[in-house]
Design a protein that fits this description.
This protein is of the alpha/beta class and 204 residues long. It is built from seven helices and six strands.
């Protein structure tokens, strides 16, 4: 049995001020994000983790490094875990495009699956690379606990794969910064046993 702990990185200033922050934006954790990473690390302190994987972006890598403080492990970088490439919309305030994106995500139609921001990726492309990566990592570790630190849309597409849920439903799901979701791979079954857990985070 393999347990994969999916961790969304801590908060950045762009999360706070609501700018589009995709794979082309290598933003850093802010102070609150650093505190969230510390809380995550303490939460996972007693886990017998075999490996810690992270996207190549600083906000994920720094979150992953916080977790290593309690474990004799190095962070292994997987660029295929990077956030969806938002193309020309990287850094754009959500207020400028948010209503259109919200309508698209809420539409629950096939358009959300193949829609690409100009110069960016589609959700289906993200799901393909992310799910293939998780399966490869699980095959490398036939038993134990893996931590995967990644991003909002990457984690949600992985969860849609586990639940056999169409990406057209992704707008129904929400994932907080510094959250934990857990998947169990056991023989021929794959189960989501924890989703968007933020109980370890202290209130502001």
């Amino acid at each position: 049995m393999v347990r994969v702990i999916l961790v969304r990185h801590g908060e950045t200033d762009w999360n706070k001020i609501r700018r589009i922050q995709g794979g082309g934006s290598d933003t850093q954790l802010n102070r609150r994000g650093e505190q969230q990473a510390e809380s995550l690390a303490f939460k996972l302190k007693q886990e017998r983790i075999q490996a810690i994987y992270s996207s190549s972006l600083h906000r994920a890598r720094d979150t992953a490094r916080a977790i290593t403080r309690y474990h004799q492990l190095e962070v292994e970088i997987e660029p295929s875990l990077n956030e969806i490439n938002a193309g020309e919309l990287e850094g754009t305030p959500l207020a400028k495009v948010g209503s259109r994106l919200d309508l698209l995500l809420a539409s629950e139609g096939q358009g959300v699956i193949t829609f690409k921001m100009p110069g960016g990726e589609s959700l289906s492309e993200v799901q393909q690379r992310a799910w293939c990566t998780v399966q490869r990592l699980v095959n490398q570790h036939p038993d134990g606990v893996l931590v995967v630190v990644s991003h909002y849309f990457v984690i949600l597409t992985i969860i849609c794969s586990v639940l056999n849920l169409s990406l057209s439903q992704i707008g129904r799901l929400r994932l907080g910064e510094g959250s934990i979701s857990t998947i169990i791979f056991d023989d021929q079954t794959t189960r989501l046993v924890l989703f968007n857990d933020t109980c370890h985070l202290t209130a502001d």
